[in-house]
Amino acid sequence: MVISANGFERGPGAAPQDGAPPQEQRSLPILQSAAPRVNEPTNAGSVGAARRVEQPVYVPPPVHTRPHAAEIAHWMDYLGRTPLLEIGAQADALRRQKHPEGVVSYIVDRNINYSNLCVTDCRFCAFYRRPKDDEAYVLSYEEIGRKIDEAKAVGAVQILMQGGHNPYLPLDWYLELLRYIKEQHPIHVHGFSASEVEMMAKVAKLPVDEVLRQLHQAGLDSMPGAGAEVLVDAVRDFIAPKKIDSARWLEIHEAAHEIGMLTTATLMYGVGEVWEDRLEHVLKLRAAQERSLGRGAGHFTAFITWSFQPSLTEMQDWQIDLGTGMDYLKMTALSRLVLDNFENVQVSYVTQGPKMAQIALRFGANDFGSLMLEENVVSATGIDFIMPEREICRIIEDAGFRPARRYQDYRLEQAGDEGCPCCRRQHQELMGSVV
Asked: What is the average pLDDT across 267-290?
């Protein structure tokens, strides 16, 4: 007997069920050895809820030793002498300049976390489980397909697919999953953080650009900006010492841009960092965007910032300054002003709540993010602000804007569209390269 992708025993030569992966996919080693989840993840199973680590000491690097030191000093002076409402007004004016049509966009999608098994032990994460934990899981292809069909039935135009850093999944598992999705449940796949791609490259013993090329050809359409946290290595050593460093995160995104992929960029603040760290982060992103735009292929489509949620993480009892609502508005406005080569700034209602997100639409943001039919990572900390589409539209309208559905490349949905425009374009390009 072997174990199929859905975890059930099957006899040799058994015919695949309708919609099941082809035999060659089920014969992959991981699909023979990965058991179905034993227990659904619970808050009680959070590693951070059971384990405490002594808080390390964080010493911010002096400004003069940082990349973009002069610009950091300039913006620190600006923050010190400019009232919050004036910063917001300047950001709102720049938003109107870039988006004069008065539209706030959003996307209908579903987050699918294909695995919570992770060996990186980020101190800020309540979602992951260690390999031998009863709550660790790897979703079957069929379960992922079912989640996609459920999302498409209510209008989803993409899935956001992310998981832990799972060293037991070979690259072929991801490639066959992408092919399975495109063949059986076609939809735009926005997936895999830079640190997940790094794990795939290590397991496959391949250069990261080759891994990205294979993922793209198999059906990966775009990449999220997860895993950036704060792109300052001193901060990363403080909160996630096993994770890739800031240069590697930027390198992987720029490698994705080189093959024509679109990606997003993020910042999670409130983990004990200082404002100089936040500025270094966004200035590194602006420089990376300038390089990618100069190459003329892919680029960052949007920037999203949110505050750290400490509950049920190893950091929940640390003595650090968590981000306030005023910090969020200031950070949103500052990102619009500094990231002048980014077209879009997205709110984070999932962590900030609907009212703060609504105010952020007047502090430089022009996108409300995702309808997010499923969310597992932030909600693992006990924060859950998921809202129905009608409520998102009401909030946008009450702020004085017109809500509009969009695709991942920020083109707005139009009546009569036959699927995602950027997916069709990429498919045509891939077919052209094959011919």
From this structure: 97
